[in-house]
Write a structure and sequence with these properties.
The protein is 19% helix and 31% strand. The strands form eight sheets. The protein has a six-stranded mixed β-sheet with strand order 15-16-19-20-22-21, with no helix packed on it. Strands 1, 2, 5, 7 and 11 form a five-stranded mixed β-sheet that branches. A five-stranded mixed β-sheet has the order 14-13-12-23-24, with helices on one face. The longest helix has 21 residues. The chain is globular.
Length: 483
């Protein structure tokens, strides 16, 4: 990465020189300060204004030349350290006030736990629109509290993939008060329903989010892992329309940020809209599903992440989907906390309302999906013969966190009958739920065809039929199919 850093350094110098010659009316300003822990400077901490990235010197000091366009100064919290927090919001950023001459200082705390091993939970699409829905969300909070207590000796934090509210920013304070019960730092990204839609350009869309949660893109470190959070909702300046897109400002910042991350490192990349929902890139079609449900320029991001062992963690779709692009790049599209917009406890693909759980040990990562209100072992749902309109003679299994390394088999009276057949279709329960238009309220709600359904035709309909699922980590789950 030395060549990368050298190139960035020269670009940085050229930019400063050009700014002196062409920006006389807007002279360069200096943002400076110190990063300390217990009164001592901390060396090598990355500090940024969202445009330029620098590192602290041996005494913990930093200097960032700026043209006055930055809203925040913030740090990439280093491994083994913690920042203070306001409730669940980590205090890794300071708003910039150009009317004052001041130092922007950061005081870190030594992490009392070894964060080489750590756990984080992933919530996506809480999307509350009323205080009544926040009361239902309390059930998810309670579920999280119970789960996190089982990890008590471990360093724990949360990640939120956006759409915290459903176009109701006035609910942010109520949401923050409720989620404060988890008593962990939570790193949030912005969703399309967290945007301001009353501005004329994309640059006006993240104003309210940043007022509540800080910068809309940033990074931090935990143990051997580097975490990057970005806003990939590009508001196109009209009505509620947006597309999945990373702008050049973010890419330029990301290139600098990753220059400090050694090749081969474990990188978690968090954003709202999925980068891509298929292993291979499909031909581009100019329609809203193509530009609004995935990143138009995902190829550039995938290319930038090639030197790393990377996991993309996203939301937005209200269903669960794992896509393995190659041995070093995987995407986890996380189902919605709100289920079917708080009208039912499942998502459009039949995935229960819940959240992702990731266990990181050094460079090793394991994960599972935690269904709210169910034990950890609840990893699939079974349906008896007659549940599916498409396959009325078959038993059905929905294995929502499936990927190609999982195994799904079935047994009759304890005898293994073989692997179940994977197919794409509608979850039977989701189909029934979404058909109740009076309960759904929103007339456009419909079940989503999913790839993680499995079927098999019993030989003896009176036999005791079981489905056995083995996840990619070798953990086995068994359920008996009801008759």
């Amino acid at each position: 990465m030395k060549i990368n850093r050298l190139r960035i350094f020269f670009i940085f110098l050229i930019g400063i020189c050009l700014s002196f010659s062409t920006q006389a009316a807007n002279p360069v300003k200096i943002l400076k300060g110190k990063v300390t822990c217990d009164g001592k400077g901390v060396q090598g901490v990355m500090v940024t204004d969202g445009y330029r990235c620098v590192q602290t010197d041996a005494s913990g000091k930093y200097t960032i030349p700026t043209l006055g366009e930055s809203r925040f100064v913030y740090i990439c919290t280093p491994s083994s350290y913690l920042t203070d927090r306001n409730g669940t919001i980590p205090s890794f950023y300071i708003p910039v006030d150009y009317s004052k001459k001041q130092n922007y200082n950061f005081d870190l705390n030594k992490n009392p736990k070894d964060d080489t091993s750590h756990v984080f939970i992933v919530q996506a699409d809480i999307q509350v629109t009323t205080k009544e829905e926040l009361k239902i969300y309390q059930n998810v909070v309670n579920d999280c509290k119970q789960l996190l207590s089982s990890y008590a000796p471990t360093d724990i934090f949360g990640v939120d993939c956006g759409d915290i509210v459903g176009d109701r920013p006035a609910l942010y304070p109520d949401y923050l008060e409720r989620v404060k019960q988890l008593d962990i730092p939570i790193y949030r990204t912005m969703g399309n329903h967290d945007m301001n839609y009353d501005g004329r350009t994309h640059e006006t869309s993240y104003k309210t989010f940043e007022e509540h949660f800080g910068p809309s893109y940033y990074s931090f470190n935990k143990g051997n892992a580097h975490y990057v959070v970005v806003d990939n909702n590009f508001f196109i300046g009209r009505d509620y329309f947006y597309m999945g897109y990373l702008d050049e400002k973010t890419f330029s910042w990301l290139e600098q940020d990753l220059s400090f991350v050694p090749e081969g490192s474990l990188v978690f990349f968090i954003m709202h809209i999925p980068s891509r929902q298929t292993e291979k890139q499909e031909a581009f079609l100019y329609n809203y599903a193509m530009i609004g449900d995935q990143m138009v320029n995902a190829g550039a991001l995938h290319e930038m992440l090639k030197p790393y062992k990377a996991h993309l963690i996203t939301g937005h779709t209200h269903y669960n989907l794992n896509v393995v692009f190659n041995n070093n790049l995987m995407e986890h599209n996380t189902a919605a906390v709100c289920g079917t917009w708080w009208k039912a406890d499942i998502c459009l693909d039949g995935t229960p309302r819940g959240y992702g759980v990731y266990e990181v040990d050094g460079k090793d990562v394991k994960w599972y999906y935690k269904s709210s209100g169910f034990p950890r072992e609840h990893q699939f749902r079974t349906y008896p013969v007659g549940s599916s309109k498409d396959y009325p003679s078959d038993i059905i299994a929905n294995v929502w966190n499936w990927d190609k390394l999982w195994k799904v088999e079935w047994l009759e009276d304890g005898k293994r009958m073989g692997d179940m057949v994977k197919y794409t279709g509608l979850d039977p329960y989701a189909s029934v739920v979404c058909a109740d238009k009076e309960k759904m309220v929103y007339t456009w709600i419909a079940p989503k065809a999913t790839q993680h359904l499995f079927r098999a035709t019993p030989q003896n309909k009176n036999a005791r039929i079981e489905i056995k699922v083995t996840d990619r980590f070798g953990k086995k789950y068994i359920q008996t199919v009801s008759k």
